[in-house]
């Protein structure tokens, strides 16, 4: 394994950024080595063992699962329960999560179980850490969870890898888990009672996806502000719309920050008088900080809710090493993450809509401050046979429409299932998946808009553009030429999109 910094998991709360760092393979993980902490983990397991020996009824240990909890399990078959739970949940479908997001799932599940209230052995926690450190990452189908009892079906794919079944991402390929474990000198783990249930009965898939969504949404807020500053430059917009006094009088924190970014990008204090410019610009320019600000402020409560979920005990039953009690409850319910993702996806979809409207301003000769229609570069007769960014505007309209369509709240679609035991569920994982899809659409919209803005800078011959426009234009033009005569631009979009997602754009 390559030498990396180690993140200790147990007592210390993890942040979203910690999860993303682990998911990206930037740090190794290990259990907290504090003896008092390790004693709690051991004590929690001992409480469960003692209760089982005393034949106390414990859900999922000596009872059936779900609506079958009223059915007692023959003592001779209790040892079969953990394996059977994993196997009958092996019905996930849909595209698999990428390796990064699957690793985030393992990290988030480890963080919850490592709190020491789940009754699992230290050996199981160490094995989850092994999967991350050796990069034996479960291949997890994206569909099959209703978000309570947690993410049972997708998390069964984590449990399966621990016991050496199904498939894993390993060294750039998808291979049999048993093969990957063997290559790393790891032996499949045989589950004790409740251990597979502890892995599966929690909110870790939706929470992991929420971590990915959070970081990408943060970046999109900054991209949207940078594009707004570029737009103001190239259409001769009225920069006074971003004056700090306006925002001090309605001081939503996100709105204040978005306006500050735009002022800095425009070098507003150093600008000449805005005399002669349009008194009021269209809303997609004038109100951009207000739109971006909603997304920034949404991220504030999203962080709080998601990090509470990362560090919370969200399986069932809960085994308390302090009191010696075993509690059957519903901490696996993903309502907070679901609501956070439904809220965030709406805020991000509005960024897509904003950027699509900004594309329209650029392409409309009645609104773009004298630029050619559709940003066509050729002049004279050649201009009549070229159409520039006309189809790019159609593209962004399509992307924005699809993003807006997906804002229907997934959490409103609870379905009674599993014999009406799971009769009210969160749909949090669907909300998180929707959010990631909207982010993907919005990032692509941003890439197309940035190409159009760089074309506009060229058409202005660089006149009147400021700090951010100069930096972004120079970066893009190192890779992609100005559009002179009509040509395909899908490869251009893909190139800018890669730069955006790899955090290479000079955004300040």
Can you describe what's shown?
There is one protein chain. Helix 4 runs antiparallel to helix 5 and helix 13 packs antiparallel against helix 14. 52% of the residues lie in helices and 6% in strands. It folds into two domains: 198 residues, Fumarase/aspartase (N-terminal domain) (Fumarase C, Chain B, domain 1, Orthogonal Bundle), CATH 1.10.275.10; 292 residues, Fumarase/aspartase (Central domain) (Fumarase C, Chain A, domain 2, Up-down Bundle), CATH 1.20.200. Strands 4-6-7 form a three-stranded antiparallel β-sheet. Strands 1-2 form a two-stranded parallel ribbon. Strands 3-5 form a two-stranded antiparallel ribbon. It is built from 18 helices and nine strands. With 508 residues, it is mainly α.
Key terms for this structure?
18 helices, elongated, mainly alpha, three-stranded antiparallel beta sheet, 52% helix, two-stranded parallel sheet, 508 residues, Fumarase C, Chain B, domain 1, Fumarase C, Chain A, domain 2
Which CATH top level class of the largest domain fits?
Mainly Alpha
Uncertain parts: none
Record field, number of beta strands: 9
Largest β sheet strand count, sense and barrel closure: 3 strands, antiparallel
The mean pLDDT is 95
- Please indicate the count of domains: 2
CATH architecture label of the largest domain:
Up-down Bundle
Strand order of the largest sheet: 4-6-7
């Amino acid at each position: 394994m390559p030498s990396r910094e180690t993140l200790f998991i147990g007592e210390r709360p993890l942040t979203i950024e910690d999860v993303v760092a682990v998911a990206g393979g930037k740090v190794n993980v290990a259990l907290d080595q504090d003896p008092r902490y390790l004693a709690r983990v051991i004590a929690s397991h001992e409480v469960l063992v003692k209760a089982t020996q005393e034949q106390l009824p414990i859900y999922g240990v000596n009872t059936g699962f779900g609506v079958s909890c009223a059915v007692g399990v023959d003592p001779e078959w209790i040892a079969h329960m953990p394996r059977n739970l994993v196997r009958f949940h092996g019905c996930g479908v849909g595209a698999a999560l990428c390796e990064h997001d699957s690793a985030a799932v393992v990290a988030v599940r480890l963080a919850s179980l490592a709190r020491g209230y789940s009754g699992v052995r230290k050996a199981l926690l160490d094995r989850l850490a092994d999967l991350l450190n050796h990069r034996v990452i479960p291949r997890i189908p994206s569909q099959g969870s209703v978000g309570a009892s947690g993410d049972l079906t997708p998390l069964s794919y984590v449990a399966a890898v621990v016991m050496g079944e199904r498939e894993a991402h390993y060294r750039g390929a998808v291979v049999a888990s048993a093969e990957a474990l063997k290559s790393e000198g790891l032996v499949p783990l045989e589950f004790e009672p409740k251990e597979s249930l502890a892995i599966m009965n929690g909110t870790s898939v939706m929470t992991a996806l929420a971590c990915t969504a959070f970081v990408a949404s943060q970046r999109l807020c900054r991209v949207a502000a940078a594009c707004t500053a570029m737009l103001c430059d190239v259409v001769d917009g009225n920069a006074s719309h971003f004056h700090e006094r306006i925002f001090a009088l309605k001081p939503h924190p996100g709105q204040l920050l978005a306006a500050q970014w735009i002022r800095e990008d425009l070098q507003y204090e150093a600008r000449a008088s805005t005399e002669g410019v349009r008194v009021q610009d269209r809303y997609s320019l004038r109100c951009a900080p207000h739109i971006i600000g909603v997304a920034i402020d949404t991220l504030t409560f999203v962080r709080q809710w998601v990090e509470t979920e990362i560090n919370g005990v969200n399986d069932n039953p809960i085994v308390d090493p302090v009191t010696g009690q075993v509690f059957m409850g519903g901490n696996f319910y993903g309502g907070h993450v679901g609501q956070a993702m439904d809220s965030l996806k709406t805020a991000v979809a509005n960024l897509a809509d904003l950027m699509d409207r900004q594309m329209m301003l650029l392409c409309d000769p009645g609104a773009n401050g004298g630029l050619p229609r559709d940003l066509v570069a050729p002049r004279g007769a050649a201009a009549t046979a070229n159409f520039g960014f006309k189809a790019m505007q159609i593209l962004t309209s399509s992307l924005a429409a699809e993003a807006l369509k997906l804002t229907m709240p997934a959490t409103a679609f609870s379905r009674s299932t599993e014999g009406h035991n799971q009769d009210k569920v969160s749909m949090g994982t669907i909300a998180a998946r929707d959010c990631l899809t909207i982010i993907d659409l919005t990032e692509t919209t941003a890439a197309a808009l940035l190409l159009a803005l760089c074309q506009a800078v060229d058409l202005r011959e660089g006149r009147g553009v400021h700090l951010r426009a100069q930096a972004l234009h120079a970066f893009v033009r190192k890779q992609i030429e100005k559009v002179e005569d009509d040509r395909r631009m899908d490869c251009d979009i893909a190139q800018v999109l890669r730069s955006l997602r790899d955090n290479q754009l000079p955004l300040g």
